[in-house]
Amino acid sequence: MSRRHAAETERAQPGVAVHPGSPRRRRLFVVLAILGPGLIAANAGNDAGGIVTYASAGAQFGYRTLFVMLVVTVGLVVVQEMCARLGAYTGQGLGALIREQFSLRTAAFALVLLMIANTGLVVSEFAGIAAAMELLHVSRYISVPVAALTIWALVVLGNYRYAERIFLVLGLVFITYPISAILAGPHWGSAATDLVIPHFLANRDFLLLGVALIGTTITPYMQFYIAAAVADRGVSPADYPDTRIDTISGAIFADLISIFIIVATAAAVTTRAPLNSAAQAANALRPVAGRFAEQLFAIGLLGASALAAAVVPLSTSYAIAEAIGTESSVSRRFSEARLFLGLFTFEIVLGAGVALVPGSLIRLLINAQILNGIITPVLLCFILTLANRKSVLGDAANGPVFRAVATVTVAIVAIMAAAAVVTEIAGL
Fold first, then answer.
1. 348 and 152 in contact (C-beta within 8 Å)?
2. How far apart are the C-alpha atoms of 28 and 200, rounded to whole Å?
């Protein structure tokens, strides 16, 4: 039985006939659109590193980085849509497509970059869990091992689809940021102006934080995950319009939250300086939660970090297993997908282990996003090339307008990443 057929069989409800035009089928797709791979992937991007990076942007530069986020949101929508389309129309994830469409050395290069980026991110997710639990007065030496074991058991032994929903619900605490931003009384005129008109600063810190914003928003693991998840769920070309809505709405929703995090933090933190602790990031929620701001922030950070701590290593496992051609599905047992679940286990153990090393958790989170921002444009080139090829997508390949927008998006990301590398080397 093929992966797509198996997924379709799994989704079917015994004894319930779902006809293409029936109200029952339409309601089913509405539910899937709300809690589909697009929303999960995009909200996983609002993980520990993302939340701290957005908060640091507001604390350090006020509203000046909002224009960067506007451009990044367009880029995220374009990139996520291409990946979901590749998964739906080919029935394969990016790992398998890169293996088939490029040389062995090129494919190996892409996968090594993904592993490097994802390993850093897995560490940052467990660092986020540690930071969240330390706000609740629980030592990282207790919280990180317990979290690692729980996440591993939910994916390998339990019901990962159910766990996804739990983590999403916990992460939705950050919907309070828009409310907090309003109650904090920001200067809406300045925020609106900085959102639509560039107000860049010509210095190293602003450039590196801009790259970090790209790295934490347009994140390679999100692209590998959404393509593989769409294929794993058996989404067909006929189903794709609903998945497309899920993907685009998920990306926009996630980035709106990110923008409000910047606005809320800019209004709450009046001294323009980098964040040094999770408690400082939590201050932006005080208009909503008062003295319970740290606890509310901790709950949201825990949910966001736990979701990403599962999604990031899964994206690595999907990519490597697909590239090699072995079983890659969360619905399989360990004995049926040893490489897939073995890689997942390895990244969980490695990420949790490194996160236990003493040091600044906040600095670790932001540095992981900078590394991701530098690696991202290389992997985006593979995605753009695949989505442009009619030999891969047929009539669903990128049209002239979409191809132009996607190319400009990748070029902007590449230029900023290159500028960050040059700046770091030159020591400016």
1. yes
2. 45
**Residue 6 counted as domain residue:** no
Give the span between the Cα atoms of 198 and 8, in whole angstroms: 47
CA-to-CA distance for 208 and 203, rounded, in angstroms?
Answer: 9
Q: Name residue, tokens 């794993």.
A: 232
Question: Would you say 392 and 102 are in contact if contact means Cβ atoms under 8 Å apart?
Answer: no
* Burial degree of 1 (CB within 10 A; 0-12, 13-18, 19+): exposed
**Which amino acid belongs to residue 395?**
D
Query: Is there a domain that residue 7 lies in?
Result: no
Helix (H, G, I), strand (E, B) or coil at 197: coil
Residue ranges making up the domain that contains 163: 23-426
406 found inside a domain: yes
| 4 within some domain | no
The CATH number linked to 150 is 1.20.1740.10
Would you say 51 and 212 are in contact if contact means Cβ atoms under 8 Å apart? Answer: no
In the chain, the number of structural domains is 1
Q: Nearest 5°: phi and psi at 343?
A: -65, -40
Q: How far, in Å, CA of 55 to CA of 48, rounded?
A: 11
**111 CB-contact burial (10 Å; exposed 0-12 / middle 13-18 / buried 19+):** buried
The mean pLDDT of 115-132, rounded to a whole number, is 87
Q: Give per-residue pLDDT as tens, 82-116.
A: 999 999 999 988 888 998 898 888 888 888 888 88
Task: Judge whether 63 and 191 are in contact, CB under 8 Å.
Answer: yes
